[in-house]
Amino acid sequence: MPTRSEAEENLRVIRSLMEKATIYRAISAPSALIGGTLALIVATVLVLRRPVPDPLPGLDATSGGFFIPTWLSVLAVTGLANLFFLHREAARRGDPFVSAGMRLAMRALLPSWLVAGVFTVFLSPYPAAVRWLAWIWVCCHGIGLLATEHFAPRSITILGWAFLITALGMVCFFSFNTIRGDPQLHANVIMGGTFGLFHLIYAACTWPRKSASVESGDAP
């Protein structure tokens, strides 16, 4: 059980994050644009170029082994872009890069990341499971975003609900319909339609406007 001083420190950090919500929303927009564009391009290429030749000896392009490294690479690029924008903003404001706020956000996101990681490891040997793996990633991403709602911008909460509701809708559709065809094709469509399209919509809706900056100055 946290002590009184730890609870007060957590409240102070949450209050600080809420005060910086507009700044974090402005930072997340370019990251969402990069990640969404990359995800949509990758999904489109993989869907249009079916069947795909084996990318590596012994690695079947129709298996989960091809789907997983491809999309983890997209995630890695997006994550590095987000870290770059966070580092640049922290340097501009004179704040430490690994701040108490970042540690709090990582703790909020860790459970959903852990669940996604465990399912990725255990489902990777099963090619037909990539459709469900894509669903798990969508679901966990939505839950992770919603875990930050107490200190994140409202737009992040809306994005989290969009991912989670879409994931719940997909599991209902999968349950009541017999899905035929290539599982990897379906999985790439899911990834492009969520991680691609949703993040592009988010970037368009939250992109910093000069007029808003003039009105609010540097404060949220």
> What is the strand tally?
0
- Biggest pleated-sheet summary: none
Our count of domains comes out at 1
Provide the residue-averaged pLDDT: 77
Strand content: under 5%
What is the succession of H and E elements?
A: HHHHHHHH
Share of helix, binned: over 70%
Low-pLDDT windows of residues: 52-64, 211-220
Gross geometry: globular
- Count the helices. How many? 8
- Please give the alpha-carbon distance between the first and last residues: 33 Å
Radius of gyration: 19 Å
User: Would you tell me the structural class of the helices and strands?
Assistant: mainly alpha
Keywords:
8 helices, 77% helix, 220 residues, globular, mainly alpha, disordered C terminus
How would you explain this protein's 3D organization?
The chain has one domain (21-50, 60-208). The chain contains 8 helices and no strands. The protein has helices at 4-19, 21-48, 64-93, 100-123, 130-146, 154-176, 183-206, 210-216. α2 (21-48) runs antiparallel to α3, α2 (21-48) runs antiparallel to α7 and α4 runs antiparallel to α5 (130-146). The chain is globular, with a radius of gyration of 19 Å.
